[in-house]
Write a structure and sequence with these properties.
Layout lengths: L14 E3 L2 E3 L4 E5 L6 E6 L3 H18 L6 H17 L1 H11 L4 H20 L7 E4 L5 E9 L2 E5 L5 H14 L3 E5 L6 H12 L7 E3 L4 H10 L5 E5 L2 H13 L5 E4 L5 E4 L5 H13 L11 E5 L3 H12 L20 H16 L3 E4 L15 E4 L6 H4 L6 E7 L2 H8 L4 E2 L1 E5 L3 H10 L4 E4 L15 E2 L2 E2 L4 H6 L2 E9 L3
Parallel strand pairs: 7-8, 7-10, 8-9, 10-11, 12-13, 12-18, 13-16, 15-16, 18-19
Antiparallel strand pairs: 1-2, 3-4, 5-6, 6-22, 11-21, 14-15, 17-20
Length: about 500
Amino acid sequence: MADFAPDSITFASGHYIGGTVVAEGERIAVARPSDLVDYAELPVASVEVVDRAVTNATQAVAESGWATRPPRDRARAMRRWADLIEERAEELGRLEALGSTRPIAQAVTGDVASVAEGIRFFSEWADKLGGDVAATRSDQLGMIVSEPYGVVGAITPWNFPLSMASWKVGPALAAGNAIVLKPSELTPFSTVRLAELAVAAGIPAGIFNVVQGTGAVTGDALSRHASIAKLSFTGSTRTGVAVMKAAAESGIKPVTLELGGKSPQLVFADADLEKAASCIAGSLLANAGQACVAGSRLIVQRPVMAELVDRLKAKLSTVTPGPTWKAATGFAPIISEIQARRIDRILAESHRQGAECLLGGGRIEGHNGAFYQPTLLAGVTAETAAVREEVFGPVLTIQAFDGEAEGFALADHPEYGLAAGVYTADLGRALRAMRALKAGTVWINRYSRTLDFILPTGGYKSSGIGKDLGRQAVEANLRHKTVLIDIGG
């Protein structure tokens, strides 16, 4: 993957409504995280602009026949869309890397490739979920009929802009809905290009609309819109509460929420320590820890703690930070100076509470962007800020345990339950851990997703409700109608 000059990239700076870029609204500055330079202005969609996007999507559903056309036709259009995404991988990757935390090499070969494959996966469900015939009396016919909601709303985060958009749009369109999506105002532009490619592939204009803006204005307006029949949000737990409240206040509607996490990585003494160290380091370094599933709490059995920490230090000490438009960059910047200062605040509070820094603990000097050192914190308790709060940076806390029950107890976070990792050679212990850990995803002797989109993702507790990915994501975009017919003579 080649370097590119950030100032050479052109893009549409606006909303995308009915197949047209609309640059309407009060404008805010958008900065590149790699150098903190303001490189664009973004219009903020007002209540009126959001209403226009939702109305356009409603009309598109009615006039295009997207929901009623043969399901295989929807699938074919979505597959053409996936082909275009692959063909434009370099273009999309550069646009993604330009203003996000995703280095160009990772964006093209990882994010964009995953988006195309995910769209194909969801397209295959278009004709697979039609409903059921129920067991009733012989003179009656009972059916459960699946129907799309109509227009669904989605709000996506800044950490994986294209990927998160595809997680929302793919199942919504496969089920026959239109969607109005608000990307993060920090990473807004690649989503518009994704929508343009959808129209180019033959998906009717208006079926995938994009509204830009802040959460307080645009996100709130979208969440409250009475014609949004279903809502999906990925982001922080605090914002998820606000989204759910706004949705309920404007009329009861289903809401899918994938929220924050403080995921444990539970390492037993019989584990393959080299593999465990590689997985744990990889989780911490991926997007500089800016992932909801980041395995940010190491809980390790005491006899192997010192050796594992030494292995982690070695793996975390050699990172290649740099601008996201450089092909050699392997370690991402923090999304903004505000977020970097938040990491500073959590680490300072943790130190006051007795935490000991074994590695890192501050900014990486010599860069214009907000780059943060991979950080290991020992001497922590359940009350330590870095254990209690979602840091969203490359910070790993370390706690030791002796017996299995103690390890399970330490792994259980009082607020979050998004994901967990377990490392052990004992199959029985792995299965006991799987049952004991209160998390929506449990990885055994690994810590990462794959391209197996059939596996859903979602959290327990304050980490969310409902699922993205898998059959469950498509089903969440369908509602069900019961039909009972008398057929007796």
